[in-house]
Amino acid sequence: MKRFFFFVLICLAISSIAFAGNLKLSSPDGSLTVTVGVDGGRAWYQVSRGNELIIGQSELGFVLKDGDLKGNFKLGKTSRSTLDEIWGQPWGEDALVRNHYNELKATLQEKSVDKRQLTVVFRAYDDGIAFRYEFPRQRGLQDFVIMDEVTQFALPSDAFAWSIPALTAYYEGIYTREPVSQKGNMAGPVTLEVNDSLYMAIMDANLTDYSTMNFSHDGTMLKADLVPWKNGDKVRVGDTRVSPWRAIIIGRTAADLLLSRMALNLNEPCKIDDTSWVKPTKYVGIWWALQKQRWTWSQGERHGATTTNTKRYIDFAARHGMGGVLVEGWNYGWDTDWTRHGDGFSFTRAYPDYDLEGLCRYAAERGVRIIAHNETGGAAQNYENQMEDAFRLYESLGINTVKTGYVNSHFYNGELQHSQWGVQHFRKVIEAAARHHLMIVNHEGAMPSGIQRTWPNLIGTESMRGQEYNAFDRRGGNPPYHECVLPFTRGLGGPMDFTPGIMEYRNDSVPGTRPQTTLAHQLAEYIVIYSPGHMAADQIENYEHQPAFKFIEDVPTDWQRTLVPHAAIGKYVTYAREQRGTDNWYVGSVTDDQARDLTLPLDFLDADKRYVAIIYEDGPDADYRTNPYPMTIRRLDVDRSTVLNLHLAPGGGAAIQLLAQ
């Protein structure tokens, strides 16, 4: 991938024997400082912002299967370096990303006879601190097993944490806000409201060949809690000799968390030489009627994935400028209890009423691509065994995207999706797909950690409670505040395949289930919930003759620049995004169950241009509980001096096009 270096790279590597005192590393602007030291053999770090201690003394180290690697250290050699670069993304919330940090490498050497060494690498950014461990090959530390990572995060107070419980199936829990001391074990990322001017998020970055980091705690002391293999091992260290980065994003406002690109910067540069085939798109799919139990994945009278149905969806996609059609339930394996017999799935053999090759030709003639769905039911090894053949077939047919799924509480071999085995599996899929020019949308996967920088063919991941719960959850679906939380938590790791755009809320199959939002809120999700591969998720007949669908037709999925004018976690959030390759902007704003009036200055617009604003907003009497449909669409001329007043109904939203003239 072409990279842009607009800043000068400065590398200052200084090696020396460390002195007895503590080591300090400051961010480029000097606002953040990490201090590293060893007391009584115990290695620790702490983080300050000015004179404010925001992470107190926190221990570093490991418990290994053959002994501890902690509590017996002294400081050894150190080195320092600085990097300031700008790199380009093939797609993203920003076309260009600045990567600017100061780095400290500190060697921790055991004082015992073996004198084993552990390296800790710290990076200080203006928007946070990150560190990871390196495991040099040496006598007594060749291939080994980690039984516990003792990494701590000592919070300055009993901060409010937005989190879901650890080991929630597929991370599909509802985020809640409580003091840390009242939480159980938490899945990462954990987002913290410490005070009015301190917001933090702690998460994995560059999760590669390692276990996912959850969090246990003792009061306000958080500790890394790694997802184990089924035998209790946490991490088996072999060829990969580094841990993921432990990233602490730090901001003065909630919006600062959303604008941080630290997770991306902590991942390796793109490994795909030619990314021209990685193309953001929008698509429709044989999906929502399945979720609402009107159609079935299995064969029979109500089978959804038929040649006839798929042609209707292809024709609709072609008429409305959609790039793809997702088809679920096209392949053999759905006719049994597939969560128990997922090893019966074939990923190359279509049902008799689904003409795979003919439909790919039909779609290509109309400028549309079929998106293949591969549900494994948790039989990951079965998938790996067929993966190359399936991907080779898809590539030959012109399919360029695969949606993968793992609906099961664990893999068939007994391992958890979030364990090291699961992380290894998901990476195999992404890398194999890249070899065959396939993009991946991964459902029920590991928590994203910014690896889309390295493998940009990973264009979407679920790992959250998505729109589907509004189709079948008899408890009422997702609460209205849900989309006001996701960007601050799950969204920090990468694009979210949330599947927005529902316009018909009636559900005869599962009475009482429907989106807990207004129609305008559904439109705003295309801006607020970031994905380069957004789906128009409703059944296509619900879009016909619907004026609001025009916004879904027009909204892009790739951006030049992103701003956040309003942000309050769990209450409301507004995004403004500039369309890549144009001077047009799009704005999305959503609220929780409370009506809100927000003021939006358009001072981010180009000073030399005038714009037409097309505003899709909640209409009179709109309310997600009683009347979700009313919407007003208005047009007006604006420029950068204009201030818009937005009224968001309960559970409501606003979606705005700002088209340069």
The appropriate CATH architecture of the largest domain is Alpha-Beta Barrel
CATH superfamily of the largest domain: Aldolase class I
Helical element count? 10
How far apart the termini lie comes to 33 Å
CATH topology title of the largest domain: TIM Barrel
Oligomer: single chain
Reported for the largest beta sheet, the result is: 10 strands, antiparallel
DSSP strand count: 37
Strand content: 35-45%
The secondary structure category is mainly beta
How helix-rich are the residues, as a percent range? 10-25%
Shape annotation: globular
- Give the overall pLDDT as a whole number: 95
Overall CATH class of the largest domain: Alpha Beta
Count of the domains = 2
**Unreliable stretches:** 1-19
Gyration radius, in Å: 25 Å
Instruction: Trace the largest sheet across and list its strands.
Output: 1-8-9-10-11-22-18-17-14-15
Describe the fold and architecture:
The protein is mostly beta strands and 661 residues long. It folds into two domains: 250 residues, Beta-galactosidase, Chain A, domain 5 (Distorted Sandwich), CATH 2.70.98.10; 278 residues, Aldolase class I (TIM Barrel). It has ten helices and 37 strands. The strands form seven sheets. A ten-stranded antiparallel β-sheet has the order 1-8-9-10-11-22-18-17-14-15. Strands 28-27-26-25-24-23-29 form a seven-stranded parallel β-sheet. Strands 30-31-32-37-34-35 form a six-stranded antiparallel β-sheet. β8 and β9 form a beta hairpin. It starts with 15 loop residues before the first strand and ends with a strand. The N terminus is likely disordered.
